[in-house]
UniProtKB/TrEMBL annotation:
InterPro entries: NTF2-like_dom_sf, YchJ-like, YchJ-like_M
Family: Belongs to the UPF0225 family.
Protein name, as recorded: UPF0225 protein F8566_03635
Organism taxonomic ancestry: Bacteria, Bacillati, Actinomycetota, Actinomycetes, Streptosporangiales
Classification via SUPFAM superfamilies: NTF2-like
Organism the protein comes from: Actinomadura rudentiformis
Domain YchJ-like middle NTF2-like: 34-129
């Protein structure tokens, strides 16, 4: 990751630099403490195209063999709408969110999903999502 990206605001929308926010999780310096934090870090991983982190934070039962990023698609903004359970004291949780994107040709849109997370080997992982 370049120093320029590290100093930029975190794609997840929290008021911190990428380096101090989701970058720490992507580099393996910390683990997500909550399902929402994992959701935010996964959105940021899509934004910076960190396939290794996405695969690592995906439950082995539902993890795809690889991640292919769509050329020209940019994830731009995350809005967390709701979170249930998913705290350091839970073993499962859900996060509802909207993620805005832009694509080639000036098209834009958003994805609305309810994601399910569980703990696996002590760490929060993405299990699956339902697009709304």
């Amino acid at each position: 990751m370049s120093k320029r990206r590290d100093a930029a605001p975190c794609p997840c929308g929290l008021p911190a630099s990428y380096q101090d926010c989701c970058g720490r999780l992507h580099r393996g310096e910390a683990q997500a403490a909550t399902a929402e934090q994992l959701m935010r870090s996964r959105f940021s991983a899509f934004a910076v195209q960190d396939a290794a982190y996405l695969l690592k934070s995906w439950h082995p039962a539902t993890r795809p063999p690889s991640i292919d990023f769509e050329p020209g698609l940019r994830w731009e903004r995350l809005e967390v709408l709701d979170a249930t359970e998913g705290t350091p004291f839970h073993t499962k949780g859900t996060v509802e969110f909207r993620a805005a994107y832009s694509a080639k040709g000036g098209q834009s849109g958003e994805m609305h999903e309810v994601s399910r997370f569980v703990r696996h080997d002590g760490a929060w992982v993405y299990l699956k999502g339902t697009v709304q």
